[in-house]
Design goal:
Number of strands: 23
Distance between the termini: 34 Å
CATH topology of the largest domain: Endonuclease, Chain A
Number of domains: 2
Largest sheet: 10 strands, mixed
Helix content: 25-40%
CATH superfamily of the largest domain: Endonuclease Chain A
Mean pLDDT: 88
CATH architecture of the largest domain: 2-Layer Sandwich
Radius of gyration: 23 Å
Length: 503
Amino acid sequence: MHNLRYLMSIGILLFSAGCAGPKVADLPAETALPPVPSAFWDDIANAQGGEWFYLLNSGDEALEWRLRMIDSATSSIDMETFLWSPDYSGRLVQAHILAAADRGVRVRFLLDDSFTMHEYLMLHAFDDHPNIELRVYNPLRHRSDSVLWRQLFNLGEFARINHRMHNKLLVVDGQAALVGGRNLADEYFGFDDTMNFRDMEVITMGSSVPGTVTHFDAFWNSGWAFPLAAIFPEPAEAPGLEEGKQGLAAGISLPAEVDRQQLQVAWQAIAAKAMSGSARFHFDEPASLDPAAPEEAPDQLAVQLQQLIDNARSEVTLVSAYLVPTPEFEQAIRSAEERGVEVHILTNSLKSNNHLAAHAAYWDHIDALVDSGVDLYEVRFRAADRHLYMEGPVDEKQLGLHAKMLLIDDDITFIGSCNLDSRSLLINTEVGLIINSMELNQQMRELLAIDFLPRNAWHVQRGSDGKLVWRGENDSYTGPPDASQIERLEDWFIGLLPINKQM
């Protein structure tokens, strides 16, 4: 009882301290460097004669092209991500960025504060480089290495810290951009030992790239992007720049000297295979005064996506790792079905979902989606073709869905960081490209077709007895397939909690 009273007293004190309100960072405005005239970039841009798009369907290619884009930079790299792990993939990205900074490239790196608990030593070594500046978005006021204590210490500012930057973006030299759903960690590129994600990204050059630059500047100068040193005072044991570089050499191959001719050949190859079209980069605005204020809810991208569904003429294919639609989106899907639009949705099953609470909230929507006429599919965690998305051998590895895509009719494609859930639509900031291209739309359909096959996904339907049934290639279930009774019980219990608006 004494300990409980003690914890409650701490909580009350922290809540009271939190009520003082956050302080916006007062920093001079810093904008992107203008694109430098370059025959290297001009030749690549002209390979398609206009704006072009290249899909990154597999994780290994997505990592390879991140590194190649970083190696191609001569003046600037602007990069933002929600999560960055110091594993194989994360260390490779870090090593190539450090090499770029050594060449004189200016690097601005924006990182959300959700998963920085154990990575501050790595981040300090990175930030020590004179050509690199790392900022942390909407940081937690009270720091702790424990997730539990971190949340408890910041209860007084829950509404503010609940708002996160979920954006993923890489822009090099103001000339080329990479947009999509992958964070910087092994499981997003197929290198994890246990579970990996099926995801999707796109590289683009052309008229949509300036929009990515405008977006990055808006977040960088929002007042909610704080210099690393202001959030993590550098501890005495933090490695310096050179020590950090030496530490990176363990387990990865450090980047060789950049060969511009080889880079040019690689860029020309994907430009020749890329799809032409036009696109606009859409993003949620960063908070200006208070991320907790309802009037500053980041819903700008949500409005654009709902309009796409409202304007669909014949077909909607929606791929979302987490499916907890708001009432407005659920109505948009229902209305589409009522006017004769075919709606197909792919999301995670209970077993493939890496967030149990997200699946528990999704349960409340399955009946309504199926009854409205939606063709609903859930990823099998042991999908037969999971080898396409992860390094082998795959016998003991599981697959999860992390992609966020939307196909409208035969000409519009959305690729970005936004799930169809309340957290993405109303709480976190998100980004994405809305692309108008029949070629790209068709290519995406061909790539996604395998994910909807019975050997890779469960088809959720009404059975003859009126109950839900999950149908696979040679089997069917009347409850979440592959899950144990304990997992189903946990899913049911969490679903009783009022969590829909937070998922």
